Amino acid sequence: MNWVQRKIYLYNVTFGLFMLDWWERCLFNILVIVLMWFIFYNGSRYVTDFCKSERVLGNQEDLATETVTELQPENGEVILTNVVLSLNRKKI
Q: Per the UniProt record, which residue ranges are transmembrane (predicted)?
């Protein structure tokens, strides 16, 4: 039994697939593949959007000023939010 066969056997035993018929096992495997595709596809979209954002690329000063201007109260409102800004970071 080589490494791949052992991993398939471990997968079948862990999820109880060894007791199912061939068509039930196929249906379960299709559901697992669709779920994994959904997770990886949406995860990759999130990671690419996050990596393209201003928070990762730099531009911290503009982001800080936009955040402060968004938090300015209007019509006598009171905003109970603390904003921590670290603008004196070393740029790498």
A: 22-40
The residue range of the domain holding 33 is 3-52
- What's the domain count of the chain? 2
Q: Which phi and psi (to 5°) does residue 34 adopt?
A: -65, -40
Q: What is the average pLDDT across 12-37? A: 93
* Torsion sign across C-alpha atoms 13, 18, 4, 34: negative
What pLDDT digit, counting tens, does each position of 49-72 carry? 777 766 655 555 666 667 666 666
Question: To which residue do tokens 């779920």 refer?
Answer: 35
Indicate if 48 and 16 belong to the same structural domain: yes
